[in-house]
Design brief:
- With 562 residues, the chain is an alpha+beta fold.
- The chain folds into four domains: 111 residues, SH3 type barrels (Roll), CATH 2.30.30.100; 209 residues; 100 residues; 80 residues, Glutaredoxin (3-Layer(aba) Sandwich), CATH 3.40.30.10.
- Helices cover 58% and strands 9% of the residues.
- The protein is built from 23 helices and ten strands.
- It has a five-stranded antiparallel sheet with strand order 4-3-2-1-5, sandwiched between helices.
- Helix 22 links the parallel strand 8 and strand 9.
- Helix 5 runs antiparallel to helix 6 and helix 15 packs antiparallel against helix 16.
Length: 562
């Protein structure tokens, strides 16, 4: 052992073992702590914790206990860095980075800067062809684990892009396309030359082929967080809008695009491209996410496809059906909502919500159908109302066989309806005007056809069983909600509105506030309302009235519904 080594050992004798350091156990039993900088078959270069560095013959070392802590790796990397062994230091720093060393990233970046400058220096003063040849040779010698590997590929990509741009300037799109394609494959994370590549493709291919090829290359080489330029997106848009929209989705920025042409037609493109079946297999995201994006772009758009897609993904989710049906009801699509509730009953036969809605909807449909029938009869009534104004000179028209035939046809239809459904005409005296019937009886008294018409009109009036206009309304008595009796005669001398309604009837609930306002405005002038509830639950009616105190007129209720 040399005297310099002996002195170094004496200095370190007083040190106690330190956690996290390499430990050298010498043949005399002494221990040294620090970090191994370099180890060969003959010697060990060891950096002491004091900062000094010694070289020991391997024969003097009885044992070496290494530590793999990140701090020691940093120390070891620093020692290699000081000796300008950058590739070895790079590997050590990489190991430290894997152990979450906060210092490692900065050391690696520093080495990459040094090595990048060295790579740049390799091509200094060379033309593009010479630079390409030089870098290709270096790349062929480099290992894919070497820090030079990515640097050589990046530099070669830069050279090829420059060659491609020069080729385009010389109107040579085919070689330019070749340069750009290889550059993209060498360094997909590097410089953005998509517009240049696209122009080269357009110069050597048809527009559609160029767009398809470009998008395929983009998908293959570019990760989702890379951004196509707005101009390029707009160019693609004119030829392949669905593919362009899909790329915007992949980039995560469809609604944030600043290109006015793209943003203007984006909702339409989403609707036409992704609201269809079968759903495009090449789509970047699940179907529901496209629908959500579309609805962000078009808040008033139809949400039905989104609900359908969610139900398809989760067909046993009762809440989805309920939310879907409620959306349809709010959109005034109750018929569609009924269809959703029927589907819910197929999955959950005991769904109270679905059963109650369908029951109420069925009753509402019957009511609306009857109202439609009444409206139709009122249309049929119009010829009679017109006839009521005929004068003496109009009689030739009455005797006209064609006119009489038309009137008889109308009368037959009215009579047929009344014969088949007389009970439903009760309470609908306005469906057939009694004044019009009287007029026909008085004026149509000549031909056989007219006699037949008179008989039909007489039958119609008999079936209606209604009092004439101006007659005193027949009295009636109904059971009140509180168990009291409500009679029409109690309101003698008043203008009385009979309001048939139910708490389960959405149109009734919607019009109730307006009726209440009318009642409040006119009650001092003799206007009164008698509510006739078609509810079957006394408690539901009572709760609703308690929650809506403006509905304060008498309520008739018998619990029998219709």
């Amino acid at each position: 052992m040399t005297s310099r080594t002996a002195i170094a050992l004496m200095v370190f004798v007083s040190f106690s073992p330190s956690a996290g350091a390499d430990t050298l156990v010498l043949d005399n039993g002494r221990e040294l702590q620090g970090v191994v900088v370099e180890e060969t078959n003959d010697s060990i270069v060891f950096k002491l914790q004091t900062g000094s560095q010694i070289t020991l013959p391997s024969s003097s070392v009885q044992n070496l206990v290494r530590s793999d802590t990140s701090e020691l790796l940093i120390l070891q990397g620093d020692a290699l860095f000081d000796k300008e062994k950058f590739e070895e230091a790079y590997e050590v720093y990489r190991k430290a980075l894997e152990k979450n060393s906060p210092k490692a990233a900065g050391r690696i970046e520093e080495i990459e800067g040094i090595l990048e400058a060295r790579v740049e220096g390799l091509t200094e003063g060379l033309n593009l062809d010479e630079a390409e040849e030089r870098i290709r040779k270096e790349l062929a010698k480099a290992s894919d684990t070497s820090p030079y590997w990515d640097l050589y590929r990046s530099r070669l990509s830069q050279i090829l892009v420059e060659k491609g741009r020069r080729a385009m300037a010389n109107f040579a799109p085919k070689p330019a396309r070749k340069y750009f394609a290889e550059a993209w494959s060498l360094d997909p994370e590097g410089q953005d030359f998509g517009e240049d590549y696209f122009q080269a493709l357009l110069g050597s291919k048809s527009s559609n082929d160029a767009i398809v090829l470009f998008l395929e290359d983009y998908n293959h080489h570019r990760p989702g967080n890379q951004t196509l330029t707005e101009e390029l997106v707009a160019r693609i848009w004119k030829h392949k809008p669905c593919e362009a929209a899909d790329h915007l989705v992949g980039l995560g920025t469809p609604k944030d695009t600043t290109n006015t042409e793209v943003s203007r037609i984006l909702p339409q493109v989403f609707r036409s491209c992704f609201y269809k079946r079968p759903f495009p297999e090449t789509a970047a995201l699940p179907r529901t996410e496209y629908y959500e994006i579309y609805l962000e772009l078009e808040p008033q758009g139809d949400r039905s496809p989104l609900f359908e897609a969610r139900i398809e993904e989760d067909p046993n989710n009762e809440t989805l059906y309920s939310d879907y049906a409620n959306y349809l009801v709010e959109a005034h699509r109750s018929e569609d909502a009924a269809g959703i509730y029927r589907r819910l009953l197929e999955v959950y036969p005991n769904s109270t919500e679905a059963s109650e809605f369908l029951k109420e909807w069925g009753a509402e449909k019957e009511r609306m159908a009857f109202q439609d029938e009444v409206a139709r009869l009122k249309e049929l009534e119009k010829p009679y109302q017109l006839a009521a104004g005929l004068t003496e000179q109009d009689f030739p028209l009455i005797n006209d066989p064609v006119r009489i035939g038309d009137l008889i046809k109308v009368a037959r239809e009215i009579s047929s309806v009344l014969e088949n459904r007389p009970e439903e005409m009760e309470g609908e005296p306005s469906a057939i005007s009694m004044e019009a019937l009287k007029t026909y009886e008085a004026e149509l008294n000549t031909a056989t056809a007219v006699e037949q018409l008179k008989n039909l009109l007489s039958q119609t009036r008999h079936l209606s069983g209604s009092p004439d206009v101006g007659d005193r309304a027949p009295d009636f008595t109904l059971s009140g909600l509180e168990g009291n009796s409500i009679s029409l005669s109690d309101f003698s001398g008043k203008v009385v509105l009979l309001y048939f309604w139910a708490t389960w009837c959405p149109p009734c609930r919607n019009e109730a506030p307006f009726i209440a306002d009318t009642h409040e405005a006119l009650k001092d002038k003799g206007f009164r309302i008698i509510g006739v509830s078609l509810d079957t639950s006394r408690s539901d009616l009572a709760d609703y009235l308690m929650a809506n105190p403006k509905i304060n007129w008498p309520q008739a209720f018998d619990g029998q519904g219709w």
